[in-house]
Design a protein that fits this description.
The structure is a single chain. This protein has 12 helices and 13 strands. It is an alpha+beta fold. A hairpin with an 8-residue loop joins strand 4 and strand 5. The longest helix is centred in the middle third of the chain and has 18 residues.
Length: 326
């Protein structure tokens, strides 16, 4: 798979050159990346084993509060279509089908958006191999996917994002005694993370076909809990680690918690997507940053992560797949 596209071997160097150019010549990107130096972060330790970070980032107000209902989406120009990109925004091609862009409203010190060249809906089916290729080529980054109903601010235009490694706590937390091995085949493994505020599956393998088969199986199971939609609610992280891929799958049951829609002092503008599920809660308003604590973050995660009954069924189905070959 990866060897079939030798041009992407230079993608990391091209992305670095793109960053250098855009931060020098595009005032919007330059200003917003400089503003990251002023971002305030606080830490919420959980049970001594896991960590939640809260980032006050006012530049993310548009993404956090974006209207993603079909009517609102259909009435605005698509900001990921090439014809609507800012004049000063430049791109690096990926596999002739994608554009690698510097995200001008960053969360990470290095933050990329990778939209498909054509205007097609946000749906991961058939494009997971592209995600793996991106993670392999951009091995200093974590590539992530937000489902159209749980975090994508452009649910009508397929895209990935990527952020520099080491930013989200989940990678470090994965090394702690929180994971339970569900199954192993020839060095490829699936774990579940338990007692971790949200439900997470972790797939690890050097074999892209194995990863695609197991992730597809998990998505089929999740679809049984979320019928009537093209894709179940989920966020996905992918990274390349020395000699294997590591995939985090966050099954979801809701996009936004009740606090997002509340009025007055109970309102918290938090719209969890992949980065939030990875352990960094992005808060665009100072008052919400000040009042968000471990108790309220636990409550928010419990509202948006897959319910316990379906979580147990999902794990059982994956465990069974190791024995029946599905």
């Amino acid at each position: 798979m990866f060897a079939d596209h030798p041009g992407i071997l230079n993608l990391k160097k091209q992305a670095e050159a793109l960053f250098d150019d855009q931060l020098q010549n595009w005032d919007l990107a330059k200003a917003n990346y400089r503003s990251l130096q002023k971002v305030v972060t606080k830490h919420l330790p959980f049970s001594g084993q896991a960590e939640i970070r809260v980032q006050y980032n006012p530049e993310r107000i548009y993404s956090t509060s974006a209207k993603v209902d079909p009517k609102s989406v259909s009435e605005r120009p698509c900001f990921l279509c090439p014809v609507f990109l800012p004049q000063k925004q430049k791109a690096v091609p990926f596999k002739h089908d994608y554009l690698v862009l510097v995200n001008p409203f960053p969360i990470f010190p290095r933050h990329l958006t990778i939209p498909y060249k054509d205007h097609i809906p946000q749906q991961l089916s058939g494009r997971f191999s592209d995600m793996l290729d991106l993670a392999r080529a951009l091995d200093d980054f974590v590539v992530f996917y937000n489902g159209p109903r749980c975090g994508a601010s452009a649910p009508d235009h397929f895209h990935f994002q990527a952020g520099i490694k080491g930013f989200m706590p989940i990678d470090d937390d994965f090394e702690k005694p929180l994971k339970v091995l569900l199954g192993e085949q020839n060095g490829s493994k699936i774990w579940s993370l338990e007692n971790y505020l949200r439900h997470i599956l972790v797939f690890s393998s050097p074999d892209p076909q194995w990863l695609e088969e197991k992730l597809s199986h998990a998505v089929r199971v999740l679809s049984e809990f979320d019928k009537g939609h093209d894709e179940p609610m989920m966020n996905v992280l992918a990274s390349w680690n020395d000699d294997h891929w590591r995939i985090f799958l966050f099954p979801r049951k809701a996009h936004r918690p009740w606090q997002f829609f509340a009025e007055g002092p109970q309102q918290i503008l938090l719209s969890p997507a992949a980065v939030d599920m990875g352990g960094v809660l992005i808060i665009p308003r100072q008052e919400d940053f000040d009042k968000l604590n471990l108790q309220s973050s636990q409550d928010i995660f419990s509202q948006v992560t897959l319910e316990a009954e379906h979580w147990e069924q999902l794990k059982s189905a994956l465990l069974k797949s190791f024995y029946d070959g599905s």
